[in-house]
Each structure stands twice: as structure tokens, then as C-alpha cells.
Amino acid sequence: MRIAVDAMGGDFAPREVVAGSVRAARDMKDVTSLVLVGDEHAVRGELEGFKGLPDKLTVHHASEVVEMGEAPAGAVRRKKDSSISRAADLVKQGEADALFTAGNTGAAVAAASLKWRRLAGVDRPAIATVIPSRDRPFVLIDAGANTDCTPRMLYQFAVMGRIYSREILGRPDPRVGLVSIGEEEAKGNETTRTAHRILKDSPMNFVGNVESRDLYEGRVDVAVSDGFVGNVVLKTSESVAHFFARWIRDELSRNWLRKAGALLARGAFVTMKKRLSSDAYGGAPLLGVRNICIIGHGSSNARAVYNGIRVAQEAIRHEVNHLIEDELKEQPE
Amino acid sequence: MRIAVDAMGGDFAPREVVAGSVRAARDMKDVTSLVLVGDEHAVRGELEGFKGLPDKLTVHHASEVVEMGEAPAGAVRRKKDSSISRAADLVKQGEADALFTAGNTGAAVAAASLKWRRLAGVDRPAIATVIPSRDRPFVLIDAGANTDCTPRMLYQFAVMGRIYSREILGRPDPRVGLVSIGEEEAKGNETTRTAHRILKDSPMNFVGNVESRDLYEGRVDVAVSDGFVGNVVLKTSESVAHFFARWIRDELSRNWLRKAGALLARGAFVTMKKRLSSDAYGGAPLLGVRNICIIGHGSSNARAVYNGIRVAQEAIRHEVNHLIEDELKEQPE
Questions:
Q1: How far is Cα A233 from Cα B64, in angstroms, rounded to an integer?
Q2: B116 near B193, Cβ under 8 Å?
Q3: What does the record give as its pathway (chains A, B) (predicted)?
Q4: How far apart are the first and last CA of chain B?
């Protein structure tokens, strides 16, 4: 397996990206080639810190970078020599089997969508992201690639999310839910009501409409929504979690009594912080394109990059794309 | 001012509703009549626990109740003698100036929408709910009354939310934001992109698109969205907050060291719980109808009911509806 890594993508690039890639190249036997794509000088500078680098780790120069705040589609078109564009080119040209980036999400979606073909039967590629909940994480699809979706697209997202949940997260028969406001079939907007009917008639293990409460109580393995709503769920969850974490810290440092208490109970906060961290999940795949593209969080550290490369490897191994095309050969009207 | 209270609405009705109403009748001088609408036997039973009840507190019998899980519109049409229907009737017949309910939100929206007229210039009534954030609370409109909205409706929601923020929450020139996924004007779905253009050209203090992060950092006083997205923001926030609170409690009781720490730091958790409680805000108005309808949380206790009646009183006093009609006389195309 050959992985192209966008060495310049993410808040801590290239340092953390290079560090995670070095570890992945050393540990993962099945990875036969790992190409760091980005400013050769900067990347080689980071590599100097490591001894005895494996031969399979190479550098592919790209002179430009799409910044985190840039408008994605325009940036990808304009910056032909950006690290994300070049990494997508390597995959397109058959020189790599998968791409990992922790950079601008929109740019990754744009690069993969513009340069690669879509899988047969897929109207739009979608981002499948893994979110921690009470017992075990669930997959949210689409997490932000498509703002306006048809019921048919939501059906395809369900199929793709289900395959991902089964193959990568190991759920035998994933429970699929449709994000809505109210559990009854009649609840929701026009698009979700039609999607509900389609999903109900499909052979999937469809548990119906789910609200946010259901997601965090672990009622589903796959939560389906358009990218607007999915992104709102994702960002609201992150914001409230951060708001809470900061607030707790502030309140606990308000006087010496609370500080002492917080010190005694420290283990609780360490456990929580660890489980909330997205590092373990590594990255969210863009599903529905004819190659593998894994998108890491902008704040990815070396561990997150390592796990993102691991996810890319598993997506290749499980032939997720073949399974998706197979299942979408026949679709409801 | 005469207020009709749905005595049977809410998880703790009629007990807490009656208790909050008794307090309101005693404290609020401007409330000249407070009608408890619901099962006479049950309501009088609760009233027996209080001594020296003011004369302005009366009971209006209604034999039915719309339950929390019932499909709203159907239930309101079918149960003509339900407490929420009767309370809305009293307002319609001019026997009360405002309605408060902590019952089924959809039923309240349906009763007010079906029985009352809309304000001139309003296409759809919307729920304005107050959400705590870092510094001070913000208004989210629509929190769930309308799932499919036009850009014009979103503009009207902004006008109504702004008046509510200014008159009831006392913000001199409320900052209005449009809930979207990305701050740039081009981000969002078709509806929000058009709404963005309309709001930008309006004389409002429009700060542009806002993401969840901005909401909880206190960047806006009014957050505008359709009812589907608004409800997702609201429910996700509540779910993550509950998930967090329960998780902290679990982690802190895992061993004696943590328990001791939690005990020392207890003040921090008490403060947080108090500020997170929605009791202080009392209820969310349904704006855009020709009367006042305040909808409390299903879990409202006596204090929340008391504050809900206070909000109803303030909405009447500030003539919110006149201001809304005035401002919507001229609307952008």
C-alpha cells in the first residue's frame, strides 16, 4: 500500500505530520511507500530529527500551501502546485493508493472531487466522521461536504456510512438513523421525510429518525444527514464540549479549596480529556470517490496523523470502495 | 394584564405549574387575572395546599390533556377540550392577554397558529428561545416551529428576534447572526446564502454567518436559522451538556480520592448547575402571532413557571407585537 501524505496540511504541519508519518512508516508493514508531499526544504528539515529512516519514506516537492482559512475550490484551482493538489495528483496518476491530509477540509474535498472520479452510483461524495458517545463512537455522514442534498443522496450516504461502520469500526449490522427533529416518521423537513420512506423500505437496519439525544445515548452506529445539518451537529458538539471544559477549569481555579479538590479528583479529568480527544480516530474519510481520501482534524498531532494513515490503510484493505459500488448498483427510485 | 396558564402542561404538571402560578399571582401587581386552565378537580386539589389565595387566581375547567409525545396538530384538532386548546380559546375570545404553557411545544404552536391570526407581514410564527453562553445569553430563532423556510422567513425571524432581544433582554442594538457552516458569505446552503444577502442590505446590525463556536463565545445576541437547524443546535447543546454532566458525575464517584476532591470543589459544580438551568429564562415566546404565547421547557418547575409568566407580562408591556408589525410593514423583495 502506498500512501501520499499532505505534509503541509494542519495547524502543526509539517512538524507533527512528519513525526506521525515517520512512526507509521516504521510500524506499518503493509505500507510499502509513504510519500510526504510539501515544501522539500521544510519537510527534509523535520526529517533530520530522526535517525535511520526507512527507505519507503520519500519526499515529493510542492511549492504552495492551501491555508486553513482559504476558500477551497478556488484555492485548489489556482494553486496547482499546492501540497494537497499534488498529493491528489499522485493518487490520480496511480503512484499512491490513498491520501491523508490534516489541512483545509474544503480543499481536500475539492481536490479529490475535481481530480478523481466519483464511484459508480454516487451522486456526491460525503465526509464520514467518527464521534465519541456514551458507550462507543458513531459515524456521522455527511459531516460537511454537501449543503443541499436530495433524499437520494441521503440514501447513498446511509449505504456508505453503513459499510464504513461495518468494515472499519467492526459493527456487524450497523443501526442506521436519520438525523431529524422528532422521532415520528412525519417529523422533519421535506427532504428527511422522503429519505425516511426510502430508508424504511431498504434492507438496512434502519432505526428511524434520531435526535441529538439519541446520538449521545448510543442509539445508532450511523447518523445520516445533509452536510449542513451534520456540520452543525459536529460543530455544536465541539463548541459545547469546549465551552464546558473551559468553564470547569475556570470554576475549579476560583479559590484554593476548589483547586485542592480538582487536584485530588485529577484522574477524572485526565480520563475525560483522553476519551474526548479525536486523536484515536485519526481522520474522516471522504466516501464516494474512486480513491481513498482521509481528512484529519486541523489540530492533528503526530498520534492523530499516525492513526489517520492507519485508517487509510484499513480503507484500502477492506476494499470499502468496491463494497460501496456493489451495494449502489441497484438503488430505490 | 390577564394570563391564561395551561395547568396540565409539562412533566411536573399540575403541581409545579400551580405552585409557580400562585407565586406569580401574589408577586406580580400588574397581573390582574391569572386563569389556571385544566382538570378542575386536579387543579383545585393542588390549590388546597396554599392559604389565602388572591381572588385574581381562578380555575377554568378543561377535560382533556395533550400528552408530551402526541402528534401536535392532530391532537389539537381532536382534543377540543384540552387545556392548551382552551387556554388558546380564552385568549382568542379576549378573556386573557397571554398564554403560558410548559406542555407539548408542537401543540402550543398548533393551537396558537390555528386559533389566532398571524401578525401582518409575518409568513410563519417562530419560536425564540434564550440560550446561555459565555458572557450572556443569546436568542435563537426559530428553535423548531418551521422545518422548511424561505429566505424571506429567515429575514422575518431576524426582525422578530431582534425586537425580542432589545425589548425583553435589554440589548440596545442587538447583533444578528445567521447560523451557517463557515463565516464567508458564500458558505451555507441555498436558503442561507440568499438570506445573507437580504440581511446584509438591511439596516440591522448584521454580523454575518455564525458557527456554533461563535454562539457560545457570545458573538451574537440573535442567532437566526430555520426551525430544523435551530432545533438541532438546541437539542445538540442540551444533549452534550447532559452527557458531560453525567459523565463528570460518574468519573468523580469512581473512587474515594475523586469523591473527596469533588466534595471540596463542590461550589464549582453548584455554580455551573445554577447557571445552566433554564429556570431563570422561564419560556420561549412564539413570535409572529396576534397574541402572546410563551412556551416553557417540559421539565419546568415552579420557578420556571413563575418566570414564564413574568416573560408573558413583559411581552405584553413592551408591546412586542406592535413593534414587529411596524417593522415588517416594509420588507425587502
A1: 37
A2: no
A3: Lipid metabolism; phospholipid metabolism
A4: 37
Domain A123-252 has CATH 3.40.50.2300: no
Domain spans of chain A? Answer: 1-122+281-333, 123-252
Contact: B188, A233; criterion CB under 8 Å = no
Tens-level pLDDT at each residue, chain B (333 residues): 999 999 999 999 999 999 999 999 999 999 999 999 999 999 999 999 999 899 999 999 999 999 887 888 889 999 999 999 999 999 999 999 999 999 999 999 999 999 998 999 999 999 999 988 877 889 999 999 999 999 999 999 999 999 999 998 999 999 999 999 988 888 889 999 999 999 999 999 999 999 988 888 889 999 999 999 999 999 998 888 888 888 888 888 888 888 888 888 888 888 877 777 666 667 899 999 999 999 998 889 999 999 999 999 999 999 999 999 999 998 887
B265 vs A262: CB contact, 8 Å cut-off?
yes
A265/chain B closest Cα distance in angstroms: 4
Pair A113, A123: CB distance under 8 Å: no
Q: In B, which residues are within 8 Å of A105 by CB distance?
A: none
Complex confidence, ipTM = 0.87
CATH code at A1-122+281-333: 3.40.718.10
Q: Is B276 on the interface with A (CB under 8 A)?
A: no
Chain B, residues 135-154, CB within 8 A of chain A, namely 144, 147-148
Whether A96 and A304 have beta carbons less than 8 Å apart is answered as no
For chain B, helix (H) and strand (E) counts, in that order, are: 13, 11
The DSSP output letter for B180 is -
- Partner-chain contact A268 B260, CB within 8 Å: no
Task: Name the CATH superfamily housing domain B1-119+284-318.
Answer: Isopropylmalate Dehydrogenase (3.40.718.10)
